[in-house]
Amino acid sequence: MIRRSGLQKEVISTYRRALRVIRSKPVDSQTRFRTLIRWHFRRPQVQEEISPRNISLIEHLVRKCQRQIEMWENPGVKDVVLNGQMKSWEEGRRWQPKRPSRDSSK
Predict the structure, then answer these.
(1) pLDDT tens, residue by residue, 5-14
(2) Would residue 93 count as lying in a domain?
(3) CA dihedral (61, 63, 68, 69) positive or negative
(4) Cα separation, 12 vs 15, whole angstroms
(5) Domain span including residue 68
(6) Which of 9, 33, 37, 50 would you label with 19, given CA atoms 20 to 30 Å apart?
(7) What is the rounded distance in angstroms from the CA atom of residue 72 to the CA atom of residue 55?
(8) Using the 8-state DSSP alphabet, how is residue 37 labeled?
(9) Positive or negative CA dihedral for 19, 25, 30, 36?
(10) What is the pLDDT of residues 45-61, one digit of tens each?
């Protein structure tokens, strides 16, 4: 099993907490919540800028996300709106079957 630092455990815990929030939301809006959460944790422009050694930035982003999750946990929040960039990012991440190789050397 991989040994994780305290900060890594906190990031994973925050991500799992965000995913658990989805279960309390209406079924028709759960996919939008899932896309929004993935976007917050995996968006490429942020991941390219974050160095694993930049602890203060990572801690800041975790605190920011925790505040966002607290808002989502409110029972009055039933749905979220995704912007076009989030939608296109999620579309690009969807699994697509691989085409068979036309390489005849096998």
Answers:
(1) 889 999 999 9
(2) no
(3) positive
(4) 5
(5) 6-76
(6) 50
(7) 26
(8) H
(9) negative
(10) 666 778 888 899 889 98
